Amino acid sequence: MTFSKSAIGSILPIILILCLAIDLSAGDSDDLLKNIQKSFEGYQNIQADYEVEYIVYEAVEPYTEQGRLIWAGDNHFRTETPDQTIVCDGVTLWMYSVTNNQVIIRSVTDGLNDLITPQKLLYEYPTHYDVQNIADDVLMGKSCFLLTLKPVSDTDPTKYLRVWVDKTNYMTRKFMVEDLADNQTIFKLKNFQFDAELSSDIFTYSTPEGVEIIDIR
Questions:
Q1: Per the confidence metrics, is the pTM higher than 0.90?
Q2: Could you tell me the CATH number of the domain that includes residue 182?
């Protein structure tokens, strides 16, 4: 599972619940998983600002991008960056690219096949990774659990993953994946908001004037 700049919008909806999908071992990790599940399921919606950094092995400088994520369960989510907006209302998926000046509209049935979503992680990918270690760490002044995970399959392009989980509210604060080529993708989340009042149209998308529409529903 290697992440590229073009895939940023498609993977953001998974970050907040990554720990729900991993195959935790017995003991302390079982208790941690239960706390994460209980905390996450208690919210109707979650919002967060994020920063993603792509570190390509032997590259001169990393690429950094910032954005905003809104998630409300049942394939309702919205991610926004300066280059891309992805919106899903549970039925329709809109993918707007500033660079291409176009929005692609797809049905959830077909469109989500190409995206990593919370539902896929919860029900299709629960045994893809094993927790190798749980440690204590401090991130941005927050006490966190630091989980180190490795893929179960030898063919997985991921070398390992690390996830920082806030001990206070069990939200994911940071997520890092390193692939077999030593490239890293690092996400940091901050400014969490829980159960904020959302506008009725937050999970639908209005195409800006002059933007090409490609409707393949």
A1: no
A2: 2.50.20.10
